[in-house]
Design a protein that fits this description.
There is one protein chain. This protein has about 180 residues and is an alpha+beta fold. It is built from six helices and seven strands; from the N terminus they run E-H-H-H-H-E-E-E-H-E-H-E-E. The chain has a seven-stranded mixed beta sheet. The protein is globular.
Length: about 180
């Protein structure tokens, strides 16, 4: 199975990705979409990169770099986390650089990672937590075939108050 298409490639993180990850992980504008409250040091990210050779079955997570094929430029990351091989599911998170949003990279990436999750990891479902205030992300997951299966009320705390979060699921039927 190939983790790429004519436009993008999903690849393992490399030490050369340190500066790009440092910029994305320390963008406070993005913190309210997840559960980050503090910046990451270069040392912490360097240590994280050094451990990326470990298997998803060991760490419970997998982060891949989304690379625009023509220019070989990293444009985002995609994560499988809370990997649960017994129940055959994992959470999914995606980050796209602000300069490439709404250009099709997100939907292509979600399709490639779903193919990997269902065909290689043999998962039955993948899911995402999407703040209802983040309509571009919500629409991205809908267009990628995810269905809203519930809402977590007052799930994320922001400076403006608590946000509701949609649980978006994509399932496959495996034998």
């Amino acid at each position: 199975m190939k983790l790429g298409n004519d436009y993008i490639l999903l690849r393992a993180l490399e030490p050369e990705d340190l500066d790009t990850l440092y910029r994305w992980e320390n963008d406070a504008e993005l913190w309210h979409h997840g559960s980050t409250l503090t910046p990451y040091s270069r040392f912490t990210l360097r240590e994280y990169l050094a451990k990326q050779h470990q298997d998803i079955f060991q760490t419970g997570q997998l982060r891949l770099m989304i690379v625009e094929k023509h220019s070989e430029t990293p444009v985002g990351t995609i994560d499988l986390y809370d990997f649960d091989p017994l129940n055959r599911r994992a959470g999914i998170g995606i980050l796209l650089d602000t300069q490439v949003r709404r250009q099709g990279f997100g939907r292509q990436t979600l399709q490639l990672i779903a193919d990997y999750a269902f065909e290689i990891l043999q998962l039955q479902q993948i899911y995402a937590f999407v703040p209802l205030t983040n309509q571009p992300s919500y629409q991205l997951f809908q267009k990628a075939g995810y269905e809203q299966s519930g809402v977590l009320k007052n799930w994320l705390k922001t400076a403006q108050g608590f946000l509701d979060v949609a649980i978006m699921q994509k399932q496959t039927i495996l034998c």
